[in-house]
Fold these 3 entries.
Entry 1:
Amino acid sequence: MEGFFALEAYALLKVLWWVLLGVLLTGIGVMVGMDMGVGTILRYVGRTDVERRVAINVIGPHWDGNQVWFILGGGAIFAAWPLVYATAFSGFYIVMLVLLWSMIVRPLGFEYRSKMPSERWRNVWDATLFISGCIPMVVFGAAVGNVILGVPFNFDWRLTSYYTGSFISLFNPFAVLCGVMSLSLAIYMGGTRLAAAASAPVSDRARTAAVVFALVAVVVFSGCGFWVATMDGFKLVSGPAAAAAQTPLHQQVVREAGALLANYAKYPALWTFPALTYAGLILGVLSLAANRPALAWWLGALAWIGVMGTVGAAMFPFMMPSITNPSHSLTVWNSGSSLRTLGWMTGWTLVFMPLIVWYTSWAFWVMRGKVDVKDVAASEHAL
């Protein structure tokens, strides 16, 4: 009986950490994406140097704290899903380097930009903030798109993974479209943040950008949905029990038309996730039109939840399907850490996740209010 309950707990913890991974990825989209969205539209919302400084100072006190979500996401994959981490980081190695290089210049842009009054100097760092805002969000979306399509990899008998694709193939049309979706949501989040926390005219331009890219996101999300409906998905035909010790070599998986919508057909309540995406974006646009950017920001967060929930619901139980050998696909059941590891991680998460939410909320509350052009121009400590 004790062994039975241990197995049931193991299966439950696997599902729990699949959900928590989705929460962390959503946190990356909402918090990190907001900052990167500001960097992407920096030259549009700021027509003068001091206006650009206003935009930078809106996110300046928070961007490095928001990076915690990025670190947590990578750490969760490493600790809870080691086989997914090893396979993904091996196959996507060059893409990961591009992501890393683009993000290395991000803190330099914040810290060095205003150290010299030279226009050329500041223009260079503005370019780095654009690059470090745009590229990571495109890569983030493209990675999700590739996982939906399936990744070209397989294992040998030692569970050594072999990536059989190319760098260029990772930026296929569907993945690029998902990258556009991710970037559009990031710009929306950044635009609503500036609309709420910056003074005019920066806030006015940011509101316009947020509305435009919310509508772009609605169109792209719809396009991705129709595209997914025509794709071959993956179906788990046979394998060990969910809580049993297993590897990807112990299962049979086939590709099947319409498999990405199978969970939606079986559980119609899952359509709530795509509905949340549309509701969040459309109501967000209406909130911006009513000059309520703070509400629009929260609705954008709701849209991110809808997007990540839509992907997760379509793919479950797959985490990283293989198009080279579908039976070597990584699932929730065969790629997780041990029962003890997941148990300890759950305990520490119950301690630290509320602390992260608390200090993030506290920081935004303490530094609430509008960032004004005159205040930034007069301050010696502003970025």
Entry 2:
Amino acid sequence: MKQVVIIGAGVVGLCTAYFARNAGFEVTVLERQQASYEGTSFGNAGMIVPSHFVPLAAPGILSQGFRWMFDKESPFYVKPRLDGDLLAWAYQFWRHCNQAQVDKAAPRLLELNLQSRDLYKQMAKDLKPFGLEQKGLLMLCNTDYGLEKEARLAETSKKLGMRADVLDKAGVGELEPDLDLNIVGGVHYPEDAHVNPKALMLALRDWLTANAVKILWNTEISGWRKDEKGICAVKTSRGELPCDALVIASGIWSVELLKTLGLKLPMQAGKGYSMLLKEPVQAFTTPAILSEAKVAISPLGSSVRFGGTMEIAGLKEQVNPSRVEGIMKSVLKYFPAYQKQDFEGTSVWYGFRPCTPDGLPYLGKLAKYDNVVLATGHAMLGLSLGPVTGKHVTELLSYEQPVDALLDPNRFMQVYSGF
């Protein structure tokens, strides 16, 4: 039986373990942190988003981002700093912010997200309930310009073969009749779905444990043992673990692991924040995104989660109050029934999204090590693309697959001399 070691117990790592175990592999998952409910896979919006077919690197994001840099409460922020890795990433990001890149990436992102949504439906038959619902996604706009922009994107969605309904305020009100809305309209994407991220992660953990997958928490990687085929064992704080194949799925921390393999990969941490209101002033039934403010809203049972911002400022383990303030002010602008005091006493969660220069994941075998697969760089789509990533990785481990040039992890890879 093929022994597979997966580094990373986030949603991508656990989905990969699920599909690998179903394919008959012997699977061990390594995680550097203690078992908890605080990782990036827990506090996110829980959205499965075929509607998000435009990559982060897109026309207009640079000019918009430059304007936002002077607003401490803006949705997107890059902290200026003299850092070689950031500069290398920013240069490649600039090169890929064009329509040609979007035209190549959009159909593939749409396809992957739709496949992932359908895989979630299959997984729901195996796992404990994790709140999977397909109610679509509402893009809410409180300006005419914002609605015009979203309407153009809806037309692109239709050309790609996916339904998108442009609605006026009354049309949105029919979907959310209990909300007091300060908007001009919105776009509804009925193919989108959502889950409860905490319930999903716990359901995956339970299934994996029940199906003989080992999850080793609080386990540090100290090195590797190599042979002519690639990596044959992982050296850890718990001893050496032999492997026939290795999967690196540890989010932004994959960058440091790759350095120990003599590889350099451009990727930056995009910090996001969220707040969970257990007793919201008004109930939400459909997941939504405040278009101009880039704030996500997720109904989680009787609670609601508000999340947003993309703060590229390194791996700072602290809350930036200005970013949180920006989220709250945006909610008040779109929903008059909410007041600032409604958020008092609410704890703030944050997590680091791994962002690639072209807005597409790193998914595939490493050119230098044929038995090592990289699965990271999903940015805001980690949960959305978790299942399709896990299935694709399992297929790569099972048989030879043609290289997907758009997702190829070697597309920006640099090899250190001497390794």
Entry 3:
Amino acid sequence: MGAAAIPVTDVNVIKDAPPAAATRVRVEFIALMALMVSIVAVSTDAMLPALTQIGQDLGVTQANNNQLVVTSFFLGLAVGQLFFGPLSDSIGRKSAINLGFAVFAVGCVLSLTASDLNMMLAGRVLQGIGAAGPRTVAVALVRDQYAGRGMARIMSFVMAVFILVPIAAPALGQGILLIADWRGIFWMFLGLAVLATVWLTVRQPETLPREKRRAFSVVRIGNAVLEVCRSRMAIGSAAAAGLIFSAMIGYLTSSQQIFQDAYGVGDLFPLYFAILAIGIGGASIANARLVMRLGMQRLTVWALSAIIIMAAVFFVIAVSLDGVPPLWSFMLYGVPTFFCMGILFGNLNAMAMEPLGHIAGVGSAVVASLTGFISLGLGSAIGLSYNGTVLPLVAGYGVLGGLALLLMLWVAKGRTGT
């Protein structure tokens, strides 16, 4: 049997295959997982350069309301993450992912044919719900086949690709706008969904056999919610992650206005966005080493403290310069802030899951959804507060960082029993 006939991944096949064939199979599997995990980042970041054009075409009178195109997607994502993990335990990984892509595709069609903002937002909510399928279940699919260091190795490669997506996605969206209008971006989303669906269906075997599946249970989800809420470590870390992600949503929704309106960078917006995104990517790589030496708790406190101090200093500077300090200074503030954010994302989620190992699947879904719901309102408030300056964003980072730090000190107090 030739290498081309080997499925994307099958543990027994990989063991028996020649080394070169096994490597090709593993590389293809990593590429497929990275594509599915990256759907969320592509669906948000590629939209950013088009927000003004979308608002103009759909008759949006308040510029800040264009941000709802981003936040409505996160609303759908928060809802979908709660259900797709448990659903995949019931109907299988591939069926759950394909259902997610189907919902995502319907949302894309609704958005690209939208004639007003309400229709656009309905489509974006559906896209978020659908994207939760591949984003959530891909991790379970990896976990079905790999464990321990093997899983860590595969996920590190997947996340390495995922890190590159926020860097490149705005440039991809900007490139599409050079040859088409904003609807071309939704056609691109639709094409990615079709590609991933066909690839998954043809090349990826089902990893959850029928005898290991569980009936879908709303009661099970409710019990997991109660367990998360009863655990100081889980609820405190999840809430802190929600606060930090609120600041990120505030940035994502207002970044196009900050760079293109306040600073007038025009088509160079994707470049400046990418520079700040590199800070998060670099932190994700550095955290793998730092966490082994310093521990999650200490790193989290240090990163939050740094965010608060930098926000306080830069806020004073920005106020003294009428809210719009030089672009170079904003970038100088942004890169280390985003580095700290990158440190926080992985550690806070890991800490939230630490006491939930016995309900890891549904627990992960609950933590992700709680984080999403917490971040939506606060993140939207930061974005909608945009007033032509960077002050709402910087203040948001400082205040939310302070609240998150208080939560983590509360978590630490519970661990020490003092």
